[in-house]
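User: I'll paste a sequence; please echo it back and then give the predicted structure.

Assistant: Echoing your sequence first, then the prediction.
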Amino acid sequence: MNIQTLVNEMADEHLGILANALAMISFRSGSLIEDLHCEGKIKDSEMKQLNKYAANELYTFLKLLSKGHPDEMRYELELALMTTAGWDKPEFTFDKKAYNAWKRLDSNKD
């Protein structure tokens, strides 16, 4: 099953869960933002606002994607392409070592 089919079949509640997970993975987990928060340079209340903003934007994007809004999606994508034109190319950063540790822990639950 591809991501488009998966997202299309998701209920709004599940889109919200996915948006929160994506915000945590892409924005919080092991990032400069999280380091600044841990060092007290970003207050808890500010971090909460940043988390909410990131999750809301992701939820909106996923909802547009899943509910078939081609004009709105085109607008979002074209705006993103213009804004990110000078950004570095993304890198694959999956932490295989952490994943394998999690798998071992998960398999020991039984």
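The chain is about 70% helix and 0% strand. Residues 23 and 98 are 19 Å apart (CA to CA).
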